[in-house]
Amino acid sequence: SSNDHKLSFRKSKEMCLNYIQDALLQKQWKRAAELLTCYVESLEKDFSREHVNPSEIIWRIGAEILWHHSQSSMKEFSYFMEQMKTLGVKRYLKVNLEHVFHLLCNGQIDEAYQNLSLAESWRFGEQTAIQSKEMKLVQAYRGLLDYCSWCKQKNLLLENGEDGFSDLAAEQEMRGYFRKAAVNLKEIIKIPGVWDVFVKCYVDLLEFYGDHNEAHQVLNEYAYNSKFPANPNAHVYLCQFLKRQGESKKPLISALKILHDIVPSHELMIDFNTMLRKSKKRKKRRLGLEVIFAVLDYAGWKENTKAWSCLARQVKHILLSEKYLDWIKQEWNSRKDWWPAFHFSHYLAKRNWQENKSLSYEKALVAGILLGKDCKYFKYVSHQGCKAQLKRFRMLKKFVNRHNSVYLRISA
């Protein structure tokens, strides 16, 4: 009966899709291709009146298989994508964008640009809001390729020095790429979203032509506009821009403070600590200690000599000034249960000494102050340093022994 046929077809379709999914997860591309062929053939033989629209499933699965299949080529992939564009007109722009990504991955930049140009001129019925956003994305990627052409032309002119920029035709061509790229990139970053690559390229264009105010405004908007999703990179780009422009410390410190709150382990925190440590204001020096302690909470920084040097330098300065020991105590209280095993084990002392003596020196100083002269890490490193007759390790041992009372005070 008709109902039995519909039920049977639905079960067969679901079963086939499950098999395809299993093959994709196991990276069995040949098996997945055979199953997809069966799936398409079963749809062609379906005589039920139920409306079936599997074009998106075929597009997404087919693209994945062709991209990974050992016997497929870019020519076959492009042919398949062209078929998918006509199969689902409402998804034309999405399919076109995916096709462009694959062309770019294969270095076929001219073909990608041609596809974007065709997509930009494409129209289907009354344009919906979704299609409008997709069209903006198409234009943005075309702007990105114009930016790549601008970079290529700029590098050629820079290679030739002043003579290169005296070539009026080449300079005008470069300006043309700049205008086309800037128009499209500027439009996409007005829409709330994560547009990192587009923002970076647009700012690069503006900076090259000296429009620093516009660049600053774009980055401020990208970082602080509440309509945009939270994005640590937006604050990173702003901080990097402020550093490049040599802005006063106040706006840079404000931007770095926000980045610290969002990503306390970011590499810019080393610069942030250095700025705060040199400040005359007590509140900022206090924040500097908090920043460097927070950085070293993360495994990626465990063996970073510069980070340990920053902490060692600030701890040593506090000890010598005989002020603000409570700062160290406050930071240490929340870490004393896990930092010893995380940073200052006997195993790490041996490994650090063998691989990086500068690192072991900085860590030993911090370990000796925080855990006292009987700390395993400090005892091993200072012993090895004195045994090797290295002067700074003898001085380190004397310094920690002299200030051992500090350990008793901060551990009380």
TrEMBL record:
Entry protein name = TAF1A polymerase
Sorted alphabetically, the Gene Ontology cellular component annotations on this record are: RNA polymerase I transcription regulator complex
Pfam families with a match to the protein in the record? TAF1_subA
Stored InterPro entries: SL1/TIF-IB_Component, TAF1A
Which Gene Ontology terms describe the biological processes this protein takes part in? transcription by RNA polymerase I
Tell me where the signal peptide lies: none
Instruction: Write the gene name.
Output: Taf1a
Name the domain of life this protein comes from: Eukaryota
